[in-house]
Amino acid sequence: MLRESIPDIGKMVEPDRVRREVYTDPAIFELEMQNIHEKVWIYCGHESQVPKVGDYYTMQIGRQPMLMVRGKDNKVHVLYNRCPHRGNMMCGDRHGNTGEQFRCSYHAWTFHHDGKLKNIPMMDSGYAGNRLNKESPELSMKRAARVESYRGFVFASLSPTGPSLKEFLGKSIVAFDDMCDRAPEGEVEVVPNCFRVIQHSNWKLFMENQIDALHPSVTHQSTGRAAHEVEKEIAKKAKAGEALSYHMLSAFATVTIDKWDNFQTINYPYGHCILTGYMGLRPQDPDTKAYDQIMIKAYGQKRFEEIVGVNIHHVLVYPGLSVQSPLQQLRAVRPLGVDRTLTEIWHFRLKGAPEAIYRRSLAYYNLVNSPATLINADDLENFWKCHQGLSSDGGDWVSFARHFGHDIERPGEVSSAPNQGTSEAPMRNQMKAWAEYMRG
Ligand code: FES
Ligand SMILES: [Fe+2]
């Protein structure tokens, strides 16, 4: 029924442009939830969010309220946050510890951490002669069809079929390897809690912006310039490297618009994408040198050079994740409606790394990704303005034609050509994947 009310997807997405309704039509949004977010692998959270038995964290997958919980078997289970009796949400809080079992606040049905029914008050008398018994699957909390974890990052798919998590991630798996490998102990742990931002625009505007190399020196120019002025003052007085926090902001202005063509985007199946590094994140200050020594001790010189030499700034795992692995940042996208999108902004500690290296990640988190920074506010304003413009009759198409026809195609990847880092290849790649998903 839903499909019949939607115009032909093939007419909405062309290789270098898409119709504006792709962003504004509520019927298309519903179909996206069915065919994309409620089918593919979506990030639930990090295992370190639920360290103890009974710890749970709630999150949204598509339109579904879900939770992940640490069971007595030490596994992380992902369940629908719904009581099978009369539908009451099992956990009303964002996170907590459910103790030995889940206990519904309405009529005290209880469940094991894997969702299986444990007990119903006066079950035997209440359900005598009834078709329901303790083993009936509809009396247990429904589980996500598939759950997989990679290096501590937990994903769930609500579809029983489809590629495995590793097949789905493909080359974008480097996001998690790069983040964890930079830890002397090979693991990261989450820093609770995250920032949550609701933007008044379609979710795809966020995903497209994450690897839009043309926008930073324009959208964030004023913030970058102001930071650069302060950075210069500090550099006059302090030792080299002490102004790294300001460098995180000033790079938005000092890396001028023409320089962004020097970088490269590499695009993969399922809409994933990598932006190569640009910020010069290997300063030679004492903190970095101390960290380098710990890493060399842990991995040996050769492997250390390989790890810190990974040249990535940003990895997009379509449709729901934006990872900045060298800075231990991650943003999870949770669409709430056609014009409302929640992003969860998390950061992580490198296990075994000195406190100063964590402080660097925290600085980036606060200065660039937090709702308090002007960088985030700059982007949010564009998202809202784009959604307003796309809701108008001022035009029918969104253009992704920049450097169209010049990208380099190899089996399994499409790269922007040399000196064409501002190619709109990432948007074309996302919309190609989108159209494939939407056709089912
Ligand atoms: S709704 Fe949960 S026990 Fe009744
Ligand atoms: Fe931005």
- What do the pLDDT scores average to? 93
Q: What is the terminal-to-terminal distance?
A: 15 Å
Judged by helices, strands and strand pairing, the structural class is alpha+beta
Counting DSSP E segments of at least 2 residues, the number of strands comes to 23
Largest sheet: 10 strands, antiparallel
Bound molecules: FE2/S2 (inorganic) cluster, fe (ii) ion
Count of helices? 15
**In one word, what is the shape?**
globular
Question: What order do the helices and strands come in, and which of them pair?
Answer:
Blueprint lengths: L8 H4 E2 L2 E3 L1 H4 L1 H12 L4 E5 L8 E7 L2 E7 L5 E5 L14 E3 L4 E2 L6 E2 L5 E3 L3 H4 L19 E5 L2 E5 L7 H5 L4 H8 L6 E3 L4 E5 L3 H8 L5 H4 L1 H17 L6 H11 L10 E3 L5 E4 L9 H14 L1 H8 L3 E6 L3 E4 L4 E9 L2 E11 L4 H15 L4 H17 L6 E3 L8 E3 L2 E3 L9 H14 L2
Antiparallel strand pairs: 1-2, 2-21, 3-12, 4-5, 4-7, 5-6, 8-9, 9-10, 11-12, 13-20, 14-20, 15-16, 15-23, 16-17, 17-18, 18-19, 19-20, 22-23
Bound molecules: FE2/S2 (inorganic) cluster and fe (ii) ion.
Could you characterize what this model shows?
By secondary structure, the chain is an alpha+beta fold. About 35% of the residues lie in helices and about 25% in strands. It is built from 15 helices and 23 strands. It has helices at about 10, 20-25, 25-35, 125, 165-170, 175-180, 205-210, 215-220, 220-235, 245-255, 285-300, 300-310, 355-370, 375-390, 425-440; strands at about 15, 15-20, 40-45, 55-60, 65-70, 75-80, 95, 100-105, 110, 115-120, 145-150, 155, 190, 195-200, 265, 275, 310-315, 320-325, 330-335, 340-350, 395-400, 410, 415. Strands 13, 14, 15, 16, 17, 18, 19, 20, 22 and 23 form a ten-stranded antiparallel β-sheet that branches. A four-stranded antiparallel β-sheet has the order 6-5-4-7, with no helix packed on it. Strands 1-2-21 form a three-stranded antiparallel β-sheet. A hairpin with a 6-residue loop joins strand 8 (about 100-105) and strand 9 (about 110). Helix 9 (about 220-235) packs across helix 10 (about 245-255), helix 10 (about 245-255) runs parallel beside helix 13 and helix 11 (about 285-300) crosses helix 12. The protein is globular. It binds FE2/S2 (inorganic) cluster (FES) and fe (ii) ion. Fe (ii) ion binds near residues 209, 215, 216 and 379.
